[in-house]
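Board notes (copied after class):
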Amino acid sequence: MTASLRAWVLRVALPHLVRWARLVTPRRRLVVVCGVPSTEGNVVELVRALQRRYEGRIVWLDPPSAAFRAAQGVEVDGFPRYSRQGVIAYLTAEAVFFTHGLFGMPRRVPRKATVNVWHGSGMKVMPRSLLAERRVGGPAADLLVSGARVWGDYYAGLSDLDPRTEVAVVGNPRVDALVRPVAAERWKALGIDPQTPLIVWMPTFRVSTGAHEGAGWSDVAGGEAAGVAELGALLAEVCAAHGVTFVVKAHPLDAAARTIAGAVQIGDADLEAAGLALYELLGGADALVSDASSVWTDYLLLDRPIGFIFPDAEEYRAGRGIQPDDALDFLPGPMISGRAEAEEFVAEVLGDDAARGPGAALRARSRERFGIEGITAGGSADGVLDALAALPFPVAARLSR
């Protein structure tokens, strides 16, 4: 099979075939969840909530390791998505929760609920094909989850959904992990002293490896600016001088090496091996540094300092694009463009008044602009299930509080 034919089968033929199969197969008392990567926090937290509330079987497609599931307390059945058990579970489930393109994202069907929990709410422009396949047509989900009203409305438009009735702006489920205590031994397994102030740098990718989505691509006009790596190293140097642990958590699709001398390098495999969710790590951080990534929109809920290493912001705008157009004017923290800004940011993190320091007003302004007010970390997964229970689907009767 040629590459072009295979792409057509996966993106066009498969969604039609799968939708037809969902229509004609019986509905069983089970739900299916699937996330990319396998440890995707939105799905982990939904499984946790489903275990508490759902009166039926839970099947996890392409699940993380058994050790990670045990560490997270999410012991449910798991199968490869294209296995016989996985396909049958998907076709007959009374509800499906997914993040990325499951089985080509077929159109939704009656009586079997489909929930797109997506992968975060942020200022990256989203090509329509990332949320719905245009050649298939029609909504792929009955409910879309968002952590902010602005981006919930935006994604609804991309997904052919009504933002008033088919979008649950309850916070991304992964934010529930921000407030969950973490045992000291798990910090130590990552090489982190839990008694030391901690700043986490989470840059998004500029150039993709293409590991999950096919061929690689670039999101910035002209390629990544050299200043990204240099500013990351500078901030690490300032942190070391002030006794602050600096953690680098690169995006899994990042083609650039994010290795920095003196920093703690952490990847998805490290977190999985330690049995730690990414947002548990973030919940223990005193500050976050990011860019166009959606992670800062979630971290806003903690009202802690947020800084930005984004020297290529205009190149990003000219490449993939930024949405809404004024997003950069409402960032919840300072741009770190040199040593002076790095020193000021670290000083704020270490200050006694970090929650009311210079960045506090910026964070409040950002939450208001993007429609994040009213969301709190700790109950978003339940909020998703509450929203589904309010819809006219048979599964609603088995989502008890």
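Comment from the instructor: The chain has two domains: 3-170+379-398, 176-370. The CA atoms of residues 173 and 380 lie 5 Å apart.
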